[in-house]
Amino acid sequence: QSYCHRLQHDMYFLTSTSRLNEQVVDKIILQLNRVYPQILTNEEAEKFRNPRASLHTRLSDLLKHLQKKGDRHCQEFYRALQINAEQLFNDLPSRKILKTSDPTEIDTDKEQYMLNDRGPVFFLACFSMAAGLALFWYCCNSDTKVVGRARRILGFSPIIIGRHVRNICMLYLEDISRD
């Protein structure tokens, strides 16, 4: 992927919600003006550092200007961005694409969403179904040993369920064991 294409891809990210402040943009412009090879002429640097224009406008114009100049100019912009705002440079969308370009590598953010794409209602439905099947199996099996086990489990139920519910379940189990 060329640097111009990457810059076009990152343009909205860089210009949105004041990710870059005035000082960092000025440092980047000065670096592009003073470092060899000189990317911006003195007149261009003054134009993009004009305090009368809004930061968003100046930054948008700078990025468009660099894209018109070519791949080498865009590459130097990325170098200046890395030097002056390394955290922002690492968070660029094009950097994330480059980091996960290996087809064998698992994107952990995507994997997290794939594992958690069902909500809590799905979890509660599955848990309720499993608990209902377990209770049905314990209570409705004709084997008397199972009823005894269920009675022991329900004996500890005041911790989990109310006393009234426990009494009803115990009465039901006693009726089943008499039959």
From TrEMBL:
Its main location: endoplasmic reticulum. It is a single-pass membrane protein. It is found in: Endoplasmic reticulum membrane; Mitochondrion membrane. The chain crosses the membrane at residues 120-138. GO terms for biological process: regulation of apoptotic process. It comes from the Eukaryota. Signal peptide: none annotated. One of its GO terms (cellular component) is mitochondrial membrane. Keywords: Disulfide bond, Endoplasmic reticulum, Membrane, Mitochondrion, Transmembrane, Transmembrane helix. Residues 38-96 form the CARD domain. InterPro entries: CARD, CARD19, CARD_BinCARD, DEATH-like_dom_sf. Associates with BCL10 by CARD-CARD interaction. This is Caspase recruitment domain-containing protein 19. It comes from Onychorhynchus coronatus. The lineage of its organism: Eukaryota, Metazoa, Chordata, Craniata, Vertebrata.
